[in-house]
Amino acid sequence: MSAKHQISGYLPDERPPFWKLFLYALQQVIVMFPATIAVALLTGFHVSTTIFASGLATVCFILVTGRKLPLYYGSSFSYLPAIAGLMASEALSGYSLNEKIAVAQFGIVMSGFVSIAAGLIVNR
Q1: Taking a C-beta distance cutoff of 8 angstroms, is the pair 34, 42 a contact?
Q2: 3-state class percentages of the chain: helix first, strand second, coil last, to nearest 5
Q3: Could you tell me the pTM of the whole model?
Q4: Binning pLDDT at 50, 70 and 90, where does residue 92 land?
Q5: At 83, phi and psi to the nearest 5?
Q6: Which DSSP string do the residues of 76-109 spell out, in sequence order?
Q7: Which residues are CB-neighbours of 54 under 8 A, at least 6 positions away?
Q8: Could you report the per-residue pLDDT of 22-45, keeping only the tens digit for each?
Q9: What is the mean pLDDT of residues 87-110?
Q10: Contacts from 97-100 at CB under 8 Å and sequence distance 24+?
Q11: Of the four, 2, 109, 112, 121, which is 20 to 30 A from 58 by CA?
Q12: Phi, psi (5° rounding) for residue 72?
């Protein structure tokens, strides 16, 4: 007796029916949107700015990859320890909260540029 294996999922060049596509998109919103907001609230960043940057990064990624890899770029919890250390740092004790947030955001943007550079080097 041979058992028929049913594969669940889609390859990048396949497209699910519209109703499944809608459900997958809804699942992504339910999973990723609260996490994006949680990071903004925990770090003191503006929620609207975080959502805008997340959307902009997602659109840029989709355009650069030619829609071959459908990913959502949301906030990362990996930066929280660094931001917490920065906020508690005695070296920045004279800075206001907004100035500390600006320093943290600068560091996050610079780490993005390092990631881009690493990707270009690896892609060679």
Answers
A1: no
A2: 70, 0, 30
A3: 0.69
A4: very high
A5: -70, -40
A6: -GGGHHHHHHHHH-GGGTTS-HHHHHHHHHHHHH
A7: 36, 72, 73, 74, 75
A8: 998 899 889 988 999 999 999 888
A9: 93
A10: 97/44
A11: 121
A12: -110, 130
